[in-house]
Design goal:
Elements lengths: L4 E4 L10 H8 L5 E2 L10 H6 L10 H13 L6 E5 L1 H11 L5 E5 L12 H11 L12 H7 L6 H11 L6 H4 L17 E6 L7 H9 L8 E6 L12 H16 L5
Parallel strand pairs: 1-2, 1-3, 3-4, 4-5, 5-6
Helix pairs in contact: 6-7
Length: 260
């Protein structure tokens, strides 16, 4: 019997970004769920128009506890597929022994791993700006095209913004530099797959590769693969099916080697 798959979205998105993925993997026989982060349950357009009052205080520890509580209720450990900050959450859940296998797509890296890439530095500084206090970071169509949809036409990027983008708490990204952003990469772990987007303006593919190769246990499996022509919106832009197929094939080969 195939395990359940839990999809975890990243910053500036909601579970709506996984709709096509849920259908894709359900057609392959997986039971799939895409839970929302706290204060990310509504339609993106509504969340942009009415920013939740406490959004600015949402932090990484709260997100981890939220998802860990969901996984602790599962009868058997599920597969977790996370995008961006969802990828870091996947790594933390894997370290806690709560998953059967994990996939991180353009994952935010733990353990204060940084990159000298200009896009990474520009975005990180803009979001974590201490002078902004607890005011949520407001995503605009222009920012979305520059940072998420940079390999898409402006028209396609703007359409994706309308359908999927939300404003976000700055605290989540700020917290990765502290204790909440730490992951023990030396312990044995379940199979892990890290996927990078070679044109990503938020999480450079070189950082995703470093993240994958940081795991040191020789008995455990961690691998990296990069997709050309993709930006940070890799899960939603044209060609997402190729990424999903790569993951499906990887799961088929690696789940057989893990215990049910």
């Amino acid at each position: 019997m195939k395990p359940k798959i839990i999809f975890i979205h990243g910053m500036f998105l909601t579970p709506k970004s996984w709709e096509k993925w849920v259908g894709y993997f359900e057609n392959l026989g997986y039971e799939c769920h895409a839970p929302a982060w706290p204060m990310h349950e509504q339609e993106p357009a509504l969340l942009r128009e009415n920013i939740p009052a406490d959004l600015g205080s949402l932090g990484l520890a709260t997100l981890y506890r939220h998802h860990a509580a969901l996984l602790e209720k599962q009868l058997t450990p599920p597969v977790v597929i996370g995008h961006s900050m969802g990828g870091l959450l996947m790594q933390k859940l894997a370290a806690a022994g709560l998953i059967r296998a994990g996939v991180g797509i353009c994952s935010v890296a733990p353990n204060r791993m940084l990159a000298a890439d200009w896009g990474f530095l520009r975005n990180s500084a803009s979001i974590t700006n201490p002078f902004a206090g607890d005011e949520p970071y407001e995503m605009t169509p222009e920012l979305f095209h520059q940072n998420f949809g940079n390999t898409m036409t402006e028209e396609d990027s703007n359409s994706a913004y309308r359908d999927f983008a939300v404003h976000e708490s700055r605290q989540v990204l700020r917290n990765i530099m502290g204790e909440d952003g730490q992951v023990d990469v030396d312990q044995p772990h379940v199979p892990l797959l890290f996927l990078g987007a070679l044109e990503d303006e938020i999480i450079p593919n070189t950082l995703v590769a470093r993240n994958a190769h940081a795991y040191t246990d020789e008995r455990s499996h961690s691998e990296y693969f990069g997709f050309s022509g993709r930006g940070h919106f890799i899960c939603g832009q044209n060609g997402w099916e190729e990424v999903a197929l790569h993951i499906a094939n990887w799961l088929e080969s690696h789940l057989a080697a893990t215990r049910s």
